Amino acid sequence: MSLPAHLAKHLRDVYFGGNWSTSSYKEHLSGLSWRQATTQVHGFNTIATLAYHTHYYVVAVSGVLKGGPLDAKDKFSFDHPPIASQADWDQFLEKVWSAAENFAALIEQLPETQIWADFIDSKYGNYYRNLQGIIEHLHYHLGQIVLIRKLILQAQHD
């Protein structure tokens, strides 16, 4: 299996399951109500905000893999549209799942030699650093989502 195929697999695993940690976005975001997803606990970001934040970078880097510019700005990465209903939340999750699969497919198509090339500009490092970084970023925020979800569900049962 090529390195791009391995990276795509790891990306799919963190979203849809099958990774070493046995935890995925699909597992922990599916089944949440929009109210749970938008509940703030202890001043932390909401689950919806964290899901949007990670999605923002997946979409931005997907654009680069399609030949476009890197047009993401960190300061906008937490600014998600309002989620005011279950339909809003469900539609957002469908976008997340679709973008994740699209991103994985784009990664798989990369020639292995491109993995070591500069990503847009040498200041960003190579493609590998950025793609692996996205996967690490996803795992980091998934851990936060899992903990916040547990706090919300526990509070609802107390």
What does this structure look like?
The protein has a single domain (3-157), classed as Four Helix Bundle (Hemerythrin (Met), subunit A), CATH 1.20.120.450. The chain starts with a helix and ends with a helix. The chain has six helices and no strands. It has helices at residues 3-16, 25-29, 34-37, 47-65, 86-108, 127-157. By secondary structure, the chain is mostly helical.
Strand content: under 5%
Largest sheet: none
**Judging by the overall fold, what is the CATH architecture?**
Up-down Bundle
Radius of gyration: 16 Å
**Structural class of the helix and strand makeup?**
mainly alpha
Average pLDDT: 96
What is the fold-level CATH name, i.e. the topology?
Answer: Four Helix Bundle (Hemerythrin (Met), subunit A)
Q: Give me the number of helical elements.
A: 6
Describe the global form.
Answer: globular
Report the CATH superfamily: dinb family like domain
Which spans have pLDDT < 50 for at least 5 consecutive residues?
Answer: none
Q: What is the N-to-C order of secondary-structure elements (H for helix, E for strand)?
A: HHHHHH
Question: What's the structural domain tally?
Answer: 1
Residue share in helix? 55-70%
First-last Cα distance: 48 Å
Just give the CATH class.
Mainly Alpha
* Count of β-strands: 0
Annotate the secondary structure layout.
Blueprint: H1 3-16, H2 25-29, H3 34-37, H4 47-65, H5 86-108, H6 127-157
